[in-house]
Amino acid sequence: MYDVIVVGGGAAGLSAALFTAKNGLDTAVFDTDDTWLHKAHLFNYLGIESMDGDEFLETGRGQVDGFGADRHQGEEVTDVAATDDGFHVTTEDDQYEATYVVLATGTDRSLAEGLDCAFDGDVVDVDVTMETSVADAYATGAMVREEEWQAVISAGDGAAAALNVLTKEKGEHFHDFDTPADAE
After folding, report:
1. 31 burial class (0-12, 13-18, 19+ CB within 10 angstroms)?
2. Which pTM was predicted?
3. pLDDT band with cut points at 50, 70 and 90 for residue 146
4. CATH (domain of 94)
5. In this predicted model, what pLDDT tens digit does every residue of 147-172 receive, in sequence order?
6. Can you give the residue range of the structural domain that contains 18?
């Protein structure tokens, strides 16, 4: 059983997975590689002067892998269901369990619909931490934003979801704040 399953491998999903894996949660990422970032070039992402979307994804995947996330590249999630202990995630190939789920599937909101998450119009309704109406289920990025689709916003949504998961797990407000000494 995983602590966290992230469905989606764009900016939101990779950001969520990076934070949870970096901070010791057993994290799986399911990525069909169907992200708009393949069509993007980033000039408007803080800290990146100019980067192709494919390069951004490659870098993000490398970071997530480096922190020990279990990445299921090309394995599509077909269903997510709430259980007494968390979530049951079904893919084309297998079934998995997790305590938390982060949905980061862009404008494809079908998994959130199947999970019976509340909607606000056409978008998934979330609180400031990106948690949906289903406890311990999070929705991020284009799933929760009407036409506000930017990689930097999506990455922030993924980080917000991950920090809330970490806060729940640690039992106190959690901050992922590194110092220069951490890099030595």
Report:
1. buried
2. 0.93
3. confident
4. 3.50.50.60
5. 777 777 888 899 999 999 999 999 99
6. 2-183
